[in-house]
Amino acid sequence: MNRNAKIICKYLGISLFITILLGGCTKYNEKQIEHNDYSQDESPISIKESKEETVKIGVLLPMSGAQSKAGQEVKAAMNMFVDIINESTDDIDIPLAQSQGLPNLGGRKIELVYGDLKSADTALSEAERLITSEGAVGICGLFSSANTKTAAVSTEKYGVPLMSEGTSPTLTQKGYEYFFRVFPDDTMYVEDSFLYLVELNETKQADIKTVALVSEDTEFGKNIANVEKECAEKYGFSIVENITYSSNATNLISESLKLKKADPDVVMMSSYISDVILYIKTFKQLNYSPKMIMGQRGGFMTSELFTALGSDAEGLCSTSAWSLDLQIPLVAKLGNLYKENYSDGVDMIADVLKCSTDLYVLCLAINQAGSTDADAIKEAMLNLIYPEDKLFIAGTGFNFNEVGQNVGTSALICQIKDGKYQTVYPDSIKAYDGLFPLPSWEEK
Amino acid sequence: MRKFININKYFIVKFLAGLLAAIVLPLFIKTPFPLHVMILICIWAIMGMGWNFIGGYAGQVSNGHALFYGIGAYTCGIGVKNFGASPWVTMWIGVMISMGIAFVLGAPLLRLKGHYFALATMAMAECGRIIFLNWSYVGGATGIDFFDRSKPSWYTMQFTSKYPYYYIFLFFVALILLLTKGLDKSKFGYYLRAIKANENSAQSVGIHTAKYKLLAFMLSAGIVSLAGSLYANYLQYIDPTVVMPLNISMMICLVAVMGGIGTVIGPLVGAIVLTIISEYTRATFSYINGFDLFVYGVLVIIIVLYMPNGLISLFNKKQKNKILTPLEMERK
Fold first, then answer.
1. ipTM of the predicted structure?
2. Full residue range of the structural domain in which residue A294 is found
3. What does the UniProt keyword field contain (chain A) (predicted)?
């Protein structure tokens, strides 16, 4: 054999090894995708069909990094809903709990397949892997808006429903076909924040006139800051400071000093957990206490807030879509079930419930469709039938409009009291009158 | 021309065999995920080969190439979204802009030595990221989303299948590999190696070091920018946290260093190994919190410990007996 032939054989051998490595790590069968444009393409690529007994749902969660704790809690809550659906659970009176598995699919059970959500670009590759290699028929998880956009490239391409946790209003303006959002978008949350301030001025003569905006510098913070500016103008509040900072910051003293100097009545923050902790500790260090600190979920809706700040967290407000104190019997039951059997004694918080509700709603739609076909699920989602007396979220139910937004949802404002979130707005469902203004650091 | 490009016969045979294997390989893959991994390999290989000119051949370790990656991605995104231009055109505009910026920034920065250059380039990339985060014309923090499932075509370089992406990216990998090979044994390549070995000595024998370092920096920036354009078109959504984070700059270095710094196919080998390890550890261990990063880290440490000349030393027997530069001798 001459040298050239040896070289060719060597390279073909290496490529054969890589093929085995790449292909061997991925399970598949030969089912062609049938429910979207992809099938009409020239590509012979195929995805895995769920021939197994289970219906697989892809879950993308942050498994490492600053948000991994939140990811673990969401995973636990999702497992709770999977157990409720897969096993007959008489205590929890919600659809699918009394049967085993999905009755309209012959009792097929739900199986979750996980992907790690490290960044927006991994959202694309993990969503793709879950759909094509694991055979997921729907995707849900703890998404930011940026992650949702890249994951949607995969879900739209393969025609798989995506239950989004991204709250950016732009997501419903993109014409996604398989996109669904069960809970409110930023506009609704921010609007409620300002309505609460108006109510405080009217009922408690709070005399709130000025607001300072503090936002981390990626899409989450910046989008919310834009909506906050519009709402402040609409409701007659003046913005005395608008701070943008990097969420990787390890020192926020100069930002806090700016706030102290501007002395706003309310500080509105869009921050991740590590920043919230750092800000509050810096405020305490500087002995700065505004009348109100209002968070826009993110770091304010994590259980780590209580463990890290202890009594310093008392009185912090946050927008939310759910709270354990909602006057609905099912809420307490679900909360107790989670606390006793699925978490280490940690209360369920709103963002955890939201993600697991996304999964539950997807299961409802799959069952109502009686099929795992994406178009059938979409159709079922748009016409979802859910008894109002079995609701466990605020609002009127699960009524998705043509762009995939649930119009039956509503936002709440919660305040931390005795280490728990208590609903303070809207008036019709509030469980606590609210603390205003915030006490000084010595009094806390 | 003969002096400029010096490619021997056996390299051509190896190159064609490798290219043939890379062309044939996807035909045996039936699921999109491995093809996605191969696309990522192409992207990282282009970036690694680009960085190799300044970091590998010229020995000027840049930690700021995410800036050029981002510029390439944004030029493509803005061109497609705002002007309806074809990425086939905008990617070259991105290359021009990146080379222009590399020229402007490189002239003062390349006067710095060693760690100072590395730190300055890192600061340069971070400044770029912050500018893009706050620049409303380029979408600010919201970024640019140009996903449009209704318009797959060669003009928009948007496809529903992954095969066209793979073959397009492979074409650029092959092109840049040939360019690297051509420059490897050219005057330009030797000048850069001389600068890397000892800049003062190189200058004393008449090499215009400032000029050649700047040329290498510009070439490097242009190639990395090309990778940014291709990736943006593949991802169809970009924002500063996706295309300009600091860890992209670090990963570009890692790909080249792990594969074999200052070698022709080192960055390609580094891209293949690192991307496969990264993607498959994540896929395999995703249910255990953070374990994939642990496995990835351990594998990287093992490679660095046992193959300090990079993975290429596994294939290249001559590497063991090669004449070491003073810098390499000092390291040994």
1. 0.72
2. 187-320+412-429
3. Signal
